[in-house]
Amino acid sequence: MREAVRRLIEENPELRADAWYPTLFVGDRVLCCDEAAVVEVGGKLAALATLAPEGEMNEGTPTIVGLYTVRAFRRKGYGKAALARAIERGI
Domains of the chain by range and CATH? Predict the structure, then answer.
């Protein structure tokens, strides 16, 4: 998951990390995320869904913590694809 977030920032320098990072990972939410479902387009990361397999509070229920789609890739189904994969993983 951390590798996916790192790639998201590196591949999209126009993003200001403080514009979206707190929305997805406020407090210790980043600590509960062990996995990410990613969608790549042409070798670039287009969408990312973060997962906490044991739940945000380690209660045992898989949880999708955040979903982010790079602005240039929005409204093309990539966010939906990342979300669908995250849901499959959580079942």
Answer: 2-90 (3.40.630)
Q: What is the mean pLDDT of residues 32-44?
A: 86
The whole-number pLDDT of residue 59 equals: 85
Q: Which alpha helices (DSSP H) does the chain contain, by range? A: 2-11, 17-24, 29-32, 78-90
Helix (H, G, I), strand (E, B) or coil at 71: helix
Q: Which of 79, 89, 91, 90 is nearest to 38 (CA)?
A: 79
Looking up tokens 């990410």 gives: 36
The pLDDT, as a whole number, for residue 84 is 94
Q: Rounded to an integer, what distance in angstroms lies between the CA atom of residue 89 and that of residue 44?
A: 22
